[in-house]
Structure formats: C-alpha cells, structure tokens
Design brief:
This protein has 21 helices and 8 strands. By secondary structure, it is of the alpha/beta class. The protein folds into 3 domains: 84 residues, Up-down Bundle (Four Helix Bundle (Hemerythrin (Met), subunit A)), CATH 1.20.120.140; 195 residues, 3-Layer(aba) Sandwich (Rossmann fold); 140 residues, Orthogonal Bundle (434 Repressor (Amino-terminal Domain)), CATH 1.10.260.30. The chain has an 8-stranded mixed β-sheet with strand order 3-2-4-1-5-6-7-8, with helices on both faces. Helix 5 runs parallel beside helix 6. The radius of gyration is 26 Å and the shape is flat. The mean pLDDT is 80.
Length: 443
C-alpha cells in the first residue's frame, strides 16, 4: 500500500541528513521532492502546494534539538501535516435512529455492493447490530443477485423486489419491513453509473430526500486517484454525503485519493476496503495511515488484527504445551490458520516498523503457506504429534503426498524444531532473566 509514495518521501528526507539545521536553502530542495512525491501520487496541485507551504512554515525557525537531526524533524512535521490533511481523527459511522439508515452512493464498479456486505458484516460482528441489506439497483439484476449471495454467505437478510422499478418505493418498503421486524440498521445499496450524469444524481437525491438517512456514504475506488476526488466533489455538491469509503486500498501504490479527498470535499474518510474477503474492512485512522506512508509501520492495527483472532483459553493451553516441550505440527498448523485470517501476509509485514522498505521488492503470494500446509496435512496424526518419527521413508511419502520435495520437507522440519527450541527458551523466566543480564554485560 502506497509503496511509491513512501519511497519518495524517504528520498526527500535523506536530503537533510547530515545538515546541522533547517534553513530556507536546504529545506527548499527537500520540499521540492515532497511536492513531487505528492504530485506523482496523483494529489491535486493546490493540495500539494498547501501541504508543502504548511510544512515550510512549521520547519523554518524550528529549533533543532541536539538529539534530533533536521531530517528527523522534517519527518515529524510531515507526519503532523499528513494527519491534518487526512482528517486529524477517525470519525465513526452514525448509527442513531430506530432503525439507523445508511445510504450508499457511488459509480458503478467502485465496489458499492461488496462494501454494503462488508459493512453489514462489520456491524453485525463488531457492533452486535441486526442488519437488513436492501437492493435498490433496479437497472442491474446482477447487483440484486450479488447482494443476495452476500447476504446468504453472511447470514444477513436481504430485502429486494424485482417487480418494482422505483427505488424510492423499494427503500420505503424496506424501512417499514425493518421497523416491523426489529432491525437496528438498514443498508441501502443504490444504482451506479459508469460516469456522473443528471439522471443518476436526480435518482440518488430523490431516494435520500424520501428516506432521510442517518448516514450517507460515498464509495469510491482508491486506485482511480484524482478522478476519485473529482467524482466525490460532484456527488457531494448534489447530495451532501457524510463520509467517504475508499475501496481497493490494498492495490493502491500511489495514495492520491486518500490524501486529497478530505481537503477537497471536507468530508472524512470513514472506512477503507483492503481485500476481497468480507472481513477485509478497516476503520480509517489518519494517524496510522500517516505512519504507514512514512514507513513507520502500523503496530496498533497489527495488534488489533491479532486480538480479533486471539482465543485466551487456547493461548493458555498452547503456553503449557510449549513449556512442556509438547508443541507439535497440529499447533503449528493452527497458528498458520490464525495468521491467514489476519489478512494478506505482505500487508501484515508492512505494519511492522522498518519492514515496509525491506518488503518492497519481495513478492509474497496470498497462498504463501500453501506448501507448508500441504506438507503438514500429508503427515499422519501420529507424525504430527511426534515429529521424531519422521525418518527418510516417511519423508519421501510426505513429499509425494504434498507435491513437494524431500528437501522442502527437511527444511520445514528444521525450521519447526528451531522455532520450538526458541519458544521453549522464551517461555522460561530464568532464561529471559539470563538474556537480560547478558545484554547488560554487553552494554
């Protein structure tokens, strides 16, 4: 995510390395690189200019402490300005009302229907809401069918009426149905077009006027860059939406839409879509996004993702097994499954400070653990619990069964044994105390 922008910001800060202080002369070159980075990211010229002007005003005359280099100070100032540019703080979705009504708007192909499903899943799983999805795209039968498929997948009810061609009537009937059946939230998926046109704007405006939603969200494909911002402005001028949703952010290497939308339409980004799965939805945190853009990682989001998959009882059982040196391939496979649920491996690695740059040219496929899982699943239950049984003949059988080589099986077994030793050592308080003493002596 935003790899190009991160690399160019890093290049801009390197210009100030080794300088004793920030002056008008040496900051000019650095700011020129920052402005170029923003323009290359498809940020509007005016936004890029305002950003660099604000950074310059804060940097010139700022006293550089002995322990802080001019380059580090520039990182801090740019970090502050990036947060301000993207909206300072996260803004929660408004769910007031009985039921709360969320209206979706956006162009066709922006991911509106998929996001409707993701939002319904998010509100059901994390907010404990009873959600009704409503299909109001009367022009594209496939959109209605898609919403029903998503609803079945998520065990969420979908309201639709293929016989009715008036989206206002469908929306009103759905809200009445929600009130009669104690739904907390109604999410209305509306029709999109390939481009902004008067017919489309009039229709979405009529739906909004008729149902008076508590929240109107504008869904846009992040990879369209400045076009996304222009479309957002056209929609906002007509329907005054409450917040923006950026979809396909995981594929966006530039970041223009994320950086520009707030400053152009003065509406917060509320959610970002980061994958195809129904749980690939994140609340937008400006500070965390600024961290990632500047290569600082995003440890808080990483920990939150881990906690979502964390089972305290299972963790206690696992700790006991590690301390007794009973950690086996079944436990290893279980841990892999939890990591996979957290999301794309490369994105997860990028959340670790300093790893984003290291992972830049590394291609980690979504099925990175496929070979490892195949090897473990080709073992018998006894072999998984007792790895010492794995002799040459067993390894040959496992390699054939998993479609791998004996060398790959040997490599996995060695990695597993090394990891098991490390985990046992780390679980012993006396060993940890010894390691701390050794580090003190080294100092």
């Amino acid at each position: 995510m935003f790899e190009n922008l991160t690399e160019k910001f890093d290049r801009a800060f390197k210009i100030l390395k080794g300088r004793g202080q920030i002056t008008e002369i040496n900051i000019a070159e650095s700011l020129k690189e920052v402005r170029r980075a923003l323009l290359d990211a498809d940020v509007s010229f005016n936004t890029a200019k305002q950003f660099t002007t604000a950074v310059k005003e804060k940097a010139i005359g700022r006293e550089v402490l002995t322990a802080v280099s001019p380059g580090q100070l520039m990182v801090k100032i740019c970090h502050e300005e990036l947060i301000s540019l993207m909206g300072d703080n996260e803004v929660e979705i408004n769910l007031k009302g009985n039921p709360a009504i969320v209206l979706m708007s956006g162009l066709q192909g922006s991911g509106k229907t998929t996001f409707s499903g993701k939002l319904a899943n998010y509100l059901k799983a994390k907010k404990g809401k009873k959600v009704l999805l409503v299909a109001c795209d009367v022009y594209r039968p496939a959109a209605i069918d898609q919403l029903h498929v998503l609803g079945d997948q998520l065990s969420i009810e979908v309201y639709s009426n293929k016989e009715e061609k008036n989206p206002v009537k469908i929306a009103q009937a759905a809200i009445q149905h929600a009130k009669s059946n104690s739904f907390n939230v109604v999410i209305i998926d509306t029709a999109g077009r390939l481009a902004v046109d008067e017919e489309m704007m009039a229709e979405i405006a009529n739906v909004k006027q008729a149902i008076q939603p508590t929240e109107t969200l504008f869904v846009v494909d992040a990879m369209t860059g400045q076009d996304a911002v222009n479309t957002a402005k056209a929609f906002n001028d007509r329907i005054q939406f409450d917040g923006v949703v950026l979809t396909k952010l995981d594929g966006d290497t530039r970041g223009g839409a994320a950086l520009s939308i707030k400053s152009i339409v003065n509406k917060p980004i509320k959610f970002v879509g980061t994958g195809e799965k129904m749980d690939a939805l994140d609340v937008f945190y400006p500070a965390r996004m600024a961290d990632r853009i500047l290569g600082m990682g995003d440890v808080v989001s990483l920990v939150e993702k881990a906690q979502e998959q964390f089972d305290e009882a299972e963790a206690r059982k696992l700790q006991k097994k590690i301390m007794k040196d009973q950690f086996d391939f079944n436990d290893f496979l279980s841990q892999l499954e939890q990591i996979k649920k957290m999301g794309n491996v490369k994105d997860l690695m990028g959340m670790i400070p300093g790893m984003g740059k290291a992972m830049k040219d590394v291609d980690i496929p979504d099925d990175a653990f496929k070979g490892v899982e195949a090897i473990i699943r080709s073992m018998t239950p006894t072999e998984r619990t007792t790895p010492t049984l794995l002799n040459n003949s067993r390894k040959i059988r496992i390699a054939k069964g998993s479609g791998t080589s004996v060398q790959e099986v040997n490599k996995l077994i060695k990695q597993f044994e090394d990891m098991r030793k490390m985990m046992k050592m780390m679980s012993n308080p006396r060993n940890l105390s010894g390691m701390k003493n050794q580090m003190r002596n080294m100092r």
